[in-house]
């Protein structure tokens, strides 16, 4: 059951709009973990990408628990992008949980509970189950409809074969419904789970491939199964500890998984689950897959969260923790002390630090090119050169934002390719940080609340208040 819900969730998140990082498809490393100059949407930032690659390798081997990595660098140097690249290259089965530091303070639960849930979202459990299945090629489906509708439920017969045997099964109403839903016809290869009665279509038999020339491109052809019709099959479900928690906490129910409205989960529930999972591990039924927990904007955490993290990392099931920040030496939230990145020294000491560097002009140009492709915007050579220059002078983010805006300007004048004029037009229309600050300096007196001068305290506001009124 749990596995079903997992696949539904993945589908939901796949409907994505073009976001800030949708062009990132991985870390762009070759098989020796050497970064390619530009690959999988990633450009430059070679040493940070290489470091991230080593961490991904460490996670995939799954032997080490409780390591933590810090991505530190100036704003817009690709820290979040690298974390997204790690998420993409880590593989489907390994959980990757994402969280922004400030989220901990806005949820309707305590900070440590939110952190605990995040940790458990990043720990996967691979559960192995042996199921009895019937697998074979459908020879015939025969359904007897009752003469008077509604008089009796439908009955029928299903003939299945393998290369060695053929058996006729009697069908009940539920199975008939299942066959109808899957549109099973003769020539299909199907599997029936004996316990649940669930029918899955595995494909069409090769022997029938010539009979129908009008099959869709998505039709999969498979061999007719051999051996016995009834088999024992090993099925592997991958769920996270958090999902098991939610499903088993009776007050919430599994629907909470979709709404995210899980509330606090009681400690006893977690303890029971940990004991159960430990039992399964001993019996060889389950394996723990430590994943990655990524906390962006980690300087937003306060001293209590940091001490929780210190402890949580010492657990043997702990995932690899990746945190990112763009702060320099600043106050640790919840204290009056200053420290590098706003992270307490004892926690900082546990971190491997990967630093990101500002981009060169060449890198900026390549990133802008990739973004143009991603957003489906065609741009003339001169426009690109100007946009790159704007990117160098202001910031990469500002230049990326101008792509969409200039494409709209181009559309407005019914052009097909974004030209120099479109870029200059939106450059004049939208201010970057530098120009906006400059403007503020000049016209400061006309804005509200400027009456409180720096170093003026909150004392006599009257004098400067007229500036606001006039
Ligand atoms: N090496 C790169 N290759 C491709 N795109 C990149 C690269 N670095 C950054 N970008 C893109 O540039 C934009 C800004 O980068 P990102 O958001 O990762 O910065 P950041 O370091 O997280 O900044 P902040 O500290 O402000 O959060 C994003 O759209 C990102 O996808
Ligand atoms: Mg970021």
Automatic annotation (TrEMBL):
Name of the top EC class for this enzyme: hydrolase
Sorted UniProt keywords: ATP-binding, DNA damage, DNA repair, Helicase, Hydrolase, Nucleotide-binding, Nucleus, Transcription, Transcription regulation
Membrane-crossing segments per the record: none
Domain AAA+ ATPase, residue spans: 65-358
Catalytic activity, reaction form: ATP + H2O = ADP + phosphate + H(+)
SMART domains found in the cross-reference section: AAA (SM00382)
Tree of life domain: Eukaryota
InterPro entries documented for this protein: AAA+_ATPase, P-loop_NTPase, RuvB-like, RuvB-like_C, RuvBL1/2_DNA/RNA_bd_dom, TIP49_P-loop
Gene Ontology terms for molecular function: ATP binding; DNA helicase activity; hydrolase activity
Keyword Transcription: yes
Subcellular localization(s) per the UniProt record: Nucleus
GO biological process, one term: DNA repair
GO cellular component term, pick one: nucleus
Keyword Kinase: no
Pfam families with a match to the protein in the record: TIP49, TIP49_C
Protein EC: 3.6.4.12
Family under the similarity heading: Belongs to the RuvB family.
This protein's name: RuvB-like helicase
């Amino acid at each position: 059951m749990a596995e079903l819900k997992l696949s539904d969730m993945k589908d939901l998140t796949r409907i994505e709009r073009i976001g800030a990082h949708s062009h990132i498809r991985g870390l762009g490393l070759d098989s020796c973990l050497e970064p390619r100059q530009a690959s999988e949407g990633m450009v430059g930032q070679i040493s940070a990408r290489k470091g991230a690659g080593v961490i991904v390798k460490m996670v995939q081997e799954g032997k080490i628990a409780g390591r933590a990595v810090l991505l530190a660098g100036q704003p817009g140097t690709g820290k979040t992008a690298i974390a997204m690249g790690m998420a993409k290259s880590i593989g489907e089965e390994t959980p990757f949980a994402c969280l922004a530091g400030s989220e901990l303070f806005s949820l309707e639960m305590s900070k440590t509970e939110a952190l605990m849930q995040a940790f458990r979202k990043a720990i996967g459990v691979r559960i192995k189950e042996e199921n009895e299945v019937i697998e074979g090629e459908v020879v015939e489906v025969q359904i007897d409809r009752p003469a008077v509708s509604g008089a009796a439920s439908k009955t029928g017969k299903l003939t299945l074969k393998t290369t060695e045997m053929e058996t006729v099964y009697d069908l009940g109403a539920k199975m008939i419904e299942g066959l109808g839903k899957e549109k099973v016809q003769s020539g299909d290869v199907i599997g029936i789970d004996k316990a649940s009665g669930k029918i899955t279509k595995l494909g069409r038999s090769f022997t029938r491939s010539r009979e129908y020339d009008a099959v869709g491109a998505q039709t999969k052809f498979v061999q007719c199964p051999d051996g016995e019709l009834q088999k024992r099959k090993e099925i592997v479900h991958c769920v996270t500890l958090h999902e098991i928690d939610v499903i088993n906490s009776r007050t919430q129910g599994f629907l909470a998984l979709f709404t995210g409205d899980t509330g606090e989960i009681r400690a006893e529930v977690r303890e029971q689950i940990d004991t159960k999972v430990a039992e399964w591990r001993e019996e060889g039924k389950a394996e723990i897959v430590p994943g990655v927990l990524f906390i962006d904007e980690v300087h937003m955490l306060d001293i209590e969260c940091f001490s929780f993290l210190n402890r949580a990392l010492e657990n043997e099931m702990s995932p690899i923790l990746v945190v990112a920040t763009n702060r320099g030496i600043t106050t640790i939230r919840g204290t009056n002390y200053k420290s590098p990145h706003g992270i307490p020294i004892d926690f900082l000491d546990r971190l491997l630090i990967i630093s990101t560097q500002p981009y060169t002009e060449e890198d900026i140009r390549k990133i802008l090119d990739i973004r143009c492709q991603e957003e489906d915007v065609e741009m003339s050579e001169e426009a690109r050169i100007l946009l790159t220059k704007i990117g160098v002078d202001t910031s990469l983010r500002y230049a990326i934002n101008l792509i969409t805006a200039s494409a709209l300007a181009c559309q407005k004048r019914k052009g097909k390719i974004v030209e120099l004029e479109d870029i200059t037009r939106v450059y004049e229309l939208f201010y970057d940080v530098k120009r906006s600050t400059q403007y503020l300096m000049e016209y400061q007196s006309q804005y509200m609340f400027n009456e409180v001068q720096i170093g003026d305290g909150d004392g006599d506001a009257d004098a400067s208040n007229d500036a606001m009124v006039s």
